[in-house]
Amino acid sequence: MATATATATAMAIITSTATITTITSITTGARTDMPSLVPIFASGVRSLRSHEGMNVRVPRATLAYTARLLQLASQSLPTGAFAYSSGLEAVVELGWVKGEDGWREYLVTMLTSSVARLEIPYFLRMYDAWEARDGALAASFSARLRASRETRELAEQEGQMGRALARVLKELFPELELDDRSFRTYAQALSLGSVCYGIPREEAATLLAYSWVEQHVTALARLLPLGPLASQKLLDGVLPSIGRAVLIGSSLKDDEIGASCPRLALASAFHETQYCRVFRS
């Protein structure tokens, strides 16, 4: 009898759907309705049992947004990230970075000196704009981020990945009535998805940073090539720097946002005429 009750409860949880309430939002150039998603475990706590046999109480809302965070971080999300190396292909071709230690240092440096000072602060401002139902302001920050890309390939990567994720959100949330063609950057779409799913601000920024790291490690796995274990070792060496990157990005004022990576810009420009290419950037 107890087993049957537990099974019924589990099925009820699995088959539950998020409650959708409509709120007014302003997107680029037009007013639309944006759904505010109330997670399945929106209130209270869920009791879990640890290995030691003690009850551990985890907030139900945390369980819900963590699942959504993993959904947005999944490589199965059709954003086309696998087609881009963000200039890494040219860096490999030119031989500017050598060995696993060199690549770990490269990724950590880029994460903490570029992503932390450009993508993350603009992402956080877009997140705040979506929360304030001001899509026009989010689009303005997105345009600034797009304008910071030094080469045509990097700018096109931003636009194409942003529009791809916006198309996904358009299907998941038809109430948004999104014009996916108006999205200029991946961060613009990801910040909107994070707000819709109720992912907290700092966790959403962590998601952005993780997506950046994973995309680069995946590209390197194809370029060097790296085996599965070596790829995980490289990923493991870079991930601890994500927290520092988010802290840096969260602390910047408007006039402090910006990063310059001249050699990456040169590599990306070289990639446009590289004789043999696997990636689009």
Question: Which secondary structure elements does this structure contain, and how are they paired or packed?
Answer:
Elements: H1 2-15, E1 19-27, E2 30-38, E3 45-49, E4 55-59, H2 60-73, H3 88-94, H4 99-113, H5 119-131, H6 135-147, H7 152-172, H8 186-196, H9 201-223, H10 228-238, H11 242-251, H12 262-271
Antiparallel strand pairs: 1-2, 3-4
Fold and architecture overview:
Helix 5 packs across helix 8, helix 5 (119-131) packs across helix 9 and helix 9 crosses helix 11 (242-251). This protein has helices spanning 2-15, 60-73, 88-94, 99-113, 119-131, 135-147, 152-172, 186-196, 201-223, 228-238, 242-251, 262-271; strands spanning 19-27, 30-38, 45-49, 55-59. The protein has 281 residues and is mainly alpha-helical. It has a domain at 83-272: Orthogonal Bundle (Urease accessory protein UreF). Residues 1-56 have low confidence and may be disordered. The strands form two sheets. A two-stranded antiparallel sheet has the order 1-2. The protein has a two-stranded antiparallel ribbon with strand order 3-4.
Summed up:
This protein has 281 residues and is mainly alpha-helical. The protein is 58% helix and 10% strand.
